[in-house]
Design goal:
about 450 residues, alpha/beta, glycerate kinase, domain 1, Rossmann fold, 6-stranded parallel sheet, 6-stranded mixed sheet, 18 helices, about 35% helix
Amino acid sequence: MPCIATRANTAAKMIPRLEPSRFTASSLQAHPRGELVMRVLASAFQSVEPGAAVKEFLEKNPLPADKRIFAFGLGKAAAAMTQSLADMYPPAESLVITKHASSLNVEPATVILGDHPIPGDSSLRAGEAARTFLSQLTQDDLLICLISGGGSALMTAPLIPLEDLQRLTSALLASGARIDEINTLRRHLDLLKGGGVVRHANGAQTISLILSDVVGDTLEAIASGPTAPDPSTREDALGILRKYDLPDKLPASIIPALSETAKSTDPIFDLAQNHLVGSNALALQVACSQLERVGIRAKIIASNMQGEAREVGPQMATRLRAELKNTPRPFCLLAGGETTVTIKGNGRGGRNQELALSAVGELAGLNDVMLVSIATDGEDGPTDAAGAVVTGETAQKAKLLGLDAAGYLSRNDAHSFFEKLDDLIKTGPSGTNVNDLVLCFAF
């Protein structure tokens, strides 16, 4: 069952801490500095561990002592964030909507596993449960929202039939639309997005602690902004549909249902606070510090990486080549953000695997270089991999196995390519979610 509603201690297993040993790939394991790379990745992931981020915020910002506290967790990191809150401020009741089961020692609590990346029946049930949960609040209560990436799909209260929302989401994903664009459409088609949770909270004070998974950390885009005002308009949403030539290809229900969302001037936000407690920028900074501590020059060249994965990969590799002419080894170039994939083939992959695959040709023959592209949630597209590793030897190894990188790229089949090379990184779900990291090494 993808949806479970229980009281406390529901989860089948805890998402394990991301130790260096979980960042496996043959090129990492075989490389003399591979263990170092794995330690740096683990440190970056651990720096945005959601439970610790919540604890740190609450230690610096104590909650009011005179209110009943209700906890509403939404997103891939919801369980860890809710547990951290409950350890310090036991809530009167909790609702947690997430993707993967993990230990939650909170009572009373209801846990719902929604659908992702396409909202489904479980997401619909989660939306119904959220509206019921919020309906019990009064002006004397305090609602603590613990929000992280993935919440847009995991919970929905759509203004259109679920199957129409599914068709829209699939069309946007296949077209290469950015996540902020997809979430703009979602906000204008959902009762709980674009400030909808605050609207349903019956005047209760709302404090949201947010782990960002979007480029630029715009609050309205993270989980489609359930507690944030939305600066976008209905016309903006229509513009996105036109950009990807979708208006005539979608169900007739969608355009008439597009509604305006709550703006910053709406009185519902007078008692609402939104606080960012973790982001991609923090993970990048920690990785930089770890590298410099062991004598590797580190430079963040982009913290807002976007665009087609197959275009960004060669750009990163070209930048590495150029840096080799001016910077003594060892060094590392780092970037963070989230690319997109326009699906034209029928292969398997994700944006990080496709980015890595597209860099194979540009890195071919370079001595002692490595590109690592990885999703911080441990899930790169609809695959079992978090990302992939490319070295200067990847092209030659592929040739010996009869693998044509360009052909696999044309089919969007990066997963099959790196699986044959044993260069997929498979961490499993990480329990956090702050976009992607790309590290380009010259040792």
